[in-house]
Amino acid sequence: MGKYKNANIGTAREKNTVKNNSAASSKGSGSKFDALIGGVEKMLVEKEREVLNKFNPLIWSSSSSSSSSSSSSSSSATLDNRTAIKIAADRHHVNIHVVRSPLAVALQRSQIRSSDRKGQDWTDSLLSIHLSFHIGQCIILLCAVKLIKTNGLLTGLSRERQMGKKKAEKVTDDKVEVDNGDHVWWWLICRSIGASFLCISVFALLIRVAVSLHPYSGAGNPPKFGDYEAQRHWMEITLNLPAKEWYRNSTINDLGYWGLDYPPLTAYQSYVHGLFLRCFDPDSVSLFTSRGHETNLGKLLMRWTVLSSDALIFFPAVFGFVSVYHTSRTSSRKTDIVWHIAMLLLGPCLILIDHGHFQYNCISLGLTVGAVAAILSQKELVASVLFTLALNHKQMSAYFAPAFLSHLLGKCLRRKHPLLEVTKLGLVVIGTFAVIWWPYLHSTDAIFEVLSRLAPFERGIYEDYVANFWCTTSILIKWKRLFTTQTLKIISLTATVLTCLPSMVQQLLAPSSKGFLYGLLNSSLSFYLFSFQVHEKSILLPLLPASLLALEEPRPFKWLTHLALFSMFPLLCRDKLVLPYVALYALFTLLYHAPGQCSGRSKTSKTDYSSVASNMTGLLYLCSFILHIVYLTMCPPEKLPFLFEAVIMLLCFSQFMLFAFYTNAKQWLLSKRSITEKEKKHI
Amino acid sequence: MSSMEDQTRRPNSTSKLLLWFFSISACLKLLLIPSYHSTDFEVHRHWLALTRSLPLSNWYSDETSPWTLDYPPFFAYFERSLSLFAHLVDPRIVDIYNGLEYKANSVIYFQRISVILSDLCLVYGVYRLTKNLEEKRRDLMWVLVVWSPGLMIVDHIHFQYNGFLLGWLLLSISCLQEGKDLMGGFLFAVLLCFKHLFAVAAPVYFVYLLRHYCWKGFVRGFGRLSLMSAVVVAVFAAAYGPFIYHGQIQQIIRRMFPFGRGLCHAYWAPNFWVFYIILDKVLSFILRRLGFDIQIPAASFTGGLVGDSSPFAVLPRVTPATTFILVLLALSPCLIRAWGNPRPGLIARWIAYAYMCGFLFGWHVHEKAALHFVIPLAIVAVQSLEDAKHYFMLSIVSCYSLFPLLYEAQEYPIKVMLLILHSILMWLGFSALFNEKSVTKAANKKKGTQLEVKGSRERGTLDEGGAMKAGTNSFKILL
């Protein structure tokens, strides 16, 4: 009898939670009923938000309730192991569905494993939970039916349309003409660009989640682990120490073990993510004791921090860029816009590095994309703030600085009061810097402390086998032996500036949006090829403007993506990410060659390429394919253990150099073309 | 319209687009390889080992592992053919003793990739089905079937071969729709020998084939009837013959129909019996409160196993026969329709309906059985707005009902994302398909009278909803 009572209390409790849930969702949709935001997706989006918004109080209530009941049941009669496991499994799924929060389950798993013994009365209370689950399902079903009927979901519109109305519809409705390619994609592009973007971004998120199932860098590889451990360690440091200590070597902060070497914005980001981790898994960020902390829950939470930053920063930035970029373009077909979104959001390199290898490039790159969008829409001040933020998240964003500098300067000089404009921009940049560096502004020592962490010159001019000038030529010229670090610094700086100069001059003379995008590409490429201490992963930076230019330069873009992936192949192999590498590369190729897409594109680009060039690229594709296979299957000779890496590096470097020449020439031709057009107009 | 042009460019580019859809999903499936897999993974691995290392006569009597073979013989042959390759990949996969609970990468990759490749059967099925369809409906159906979130969850995360089996079903339906009844019946018989749970649609097949294929005068009809039955018997003989020869047939039947397993599966499928059990619980609770002496049943529903005692406190016990009769009763309207007017165009609808009845009233139904009606229903969904609405709701709910299969936190975002993506795709696709049609129709209707209204509507100034309503009305009138 007593047992049964227990069960009934359980039912009542669970029913309450279910009711709360459904009430909340129906209230949410009810208030905006008239605004035609609704339908089932609305509920689903809410649910997704619930997942992302991990500070749901329900988690705590459920976990505490189940833990109390498990302790009460552990004293009663025992079942055999298999039933216990089954019950545990049942409990998992019930919890997920009643509370709809994965974290509760994750938190409980450890408890369940520890308490294997279950009482007979558990089955009954489980039954009641089951019942409430199904009642919940029925309620949701009914809600769905009602919403569909009243809202007329198929006829009704949801907020994407409103979003689209604001931003993109005016872009597309006026200019986009229906073309041959469109009728393959009619189902994707029938509505506004906003809806298509939503669809692609959900798919992109899905791909990111799937990639995040795979191992991260340095998984199970003590004592130093990898980038994952570095990020986790930063969370630990920023969470437990005051801001002044973050960059200072002391007894409590050993900078030798993954010391913080990114600017303060990264530290703040680590702090916020650390707070999130501490909520659910305090062990993973506790000072000292958490070194090398590797658990499934920790991995999951860390992965979700990257996912959320991607979804909150990179995705909106891309949406902003696409809507601005295609307003200014005169000949965008809707299909092309959708294709461009897919290329931007499903770039394999960024996904592999952020969600496989584990880093937060999406934040700095997203901020850069936002800055580019702001520049294209003539909002220079917003652009400079966003770019300063990007710069303060990763100092590597400085690869883009020459382009921003020259473009903004070139623009300002053409205005009425050039000096005023420049000071305005300068003040905004300095102000942003001041806000971010506030904890370190009290003394010059503190500033230099941070700065010395940001520029690790002692690590040498190159590391590993990166496909840039210094590393490749070191096969012939031993730079490290011939020169001191000091001279190398100066040499590399001059080389970088010299190679940047042409594109900067072009932007100063004739600033234009298109030229600016080429300028970004050129300056980041020259930094990648010639600057000091470049990492393989830095190829992400030149890749970004290349993907922004994907519609202008489809083939070079594809070629660069291929090479960038290839240049990171040894790194990703070490991280055991070969499977996602293959899958994402295939996905990229498929999306690039989406049917109904390339017919128009290849026609225009075929004129640029002679048959010799296409034969050459075919040959190079074959080479790289063979190299992939060789790298995976064969052992290098003992005397030359890094033979294959060197070959890959050589191949990539030669292509990157060619690419840099090509894009520089392209940028200069742009201004020439505009000049000739002007002349024509004059005539 | 451009339909003439479509006709000419169809054969080459269509299959290309379909393959493109398939490859995109294959990329995602590859990425999902390291995700959680259920005990079904070990079940199928054990079947590989079992069919490889034991003689045919022992397949159904072996008890090395608790995961005994309980699918019909064709599936066992299928596993046997897979095991030939598995042996080449890693001999331990097919080792019946050392392979137990084998979790190396080799076996995971092999089995996962075998599911991905066997999905080609589904792709061919849907290709055949849509060969003669209008382009837009065809594209949409491909999206719905090839990118089905349910299949992704059940086959590629949870682990099963449903895509392959549903491919056979779609092939059979496509044959029936083209009027190739004999072939359709043959394929369905083959399907039954792969997985007997598909037998729920057998009454529909029986009535339809009898009326549409065999009802052609006495002599000719009898000839056709005997031909059809000969084909079916031949298929069953090929499947079960060797086992009858070894005297294993009773053992097979015992394995395939484990009625002792109880009314509901351990994870309840959201069907009619849930309400029945709830009612029983509520009644017993109320009656006990009122002072009646009611025994609490010892058996539980969640355990999945029920002994001899009735699991119900108040309501009468449900036996397999009851469920069988209920399914038949629920099916009867459709059977009567099929008897009265056997139209090939409606067969997909009937089959989907039959599986739905089986799902709602069947004995020991898995929630995975929801796929059996969601996939064929996609064929129906693209036919009219009304059907699309039904499909929209049903597929969302059935996908949601699959959520308990993946209970680990790691897969939580995946299943939510799959469902959201699916609903967005459906919303985009259906609204594009039916909106455009209705707009053109509404425009045609009003062409003569209100030119200026039509113009403004085409410019998009009128609310789309209004246009849509007008469109559906005209659609109904036209029907």
From TrEMBL, chain A:
It is found in: Endoplasmic reticulum membrane. It is a multi-pass membrane protein. The chain crosses the membrane at residues 126-148, 184-207, 300-325, 337-353, 425-441, 491-509, 578-595, 616-634, 640-663. Residues 19-30 have a biased composition (Low complexity). It holds the Pfam family Alg6_Alg8. PANTHER family: DOLICHYL GLYCOSYLTRANSFERASE, DOLICHYL PYROPHOSPHATE MAN9GLCNAC2 ALPHA-1,3-GLUCOSYLTRANSFERASE. This is Alpha-1,3-glucosyltransferase.
UniProtKB/TrEMBL annotation, chain B:
It is an enzyme of class 2 (transferase). One of its GO terms (cellular component) is endoplasmic reticulum membrane. One of its GO terms (molecular function) is dolichyl pyrophosphate Glc1Man9GlcNAc2 alpha-1,3-glucosyltransferase activity. Pfam families: Alg6_Alg8. Its EC number is 2.4.1.-. One of its GO terms (biological process) is protein N-linked glycosylation. It is a multi-pass membrane protein. The chain crosses the membrane at residues 17-37, 107-127, 139-159, 186-210, 222-245, 265-287, 294-315, 321-339, 346-363, 416-435. Keywords: Endoplasmic reticulum, Glycosyltransferase, Membrane, Transferase, Transmembrane, Transmembrane helix. Pathway: Protein modification; protein glycosylation. It is found in: Endoplasmic reticulum membrane. Belongs to the ALG6/ALG8 glucosyltransferase family. This is Alpha-1,3-glucosyltransferase.
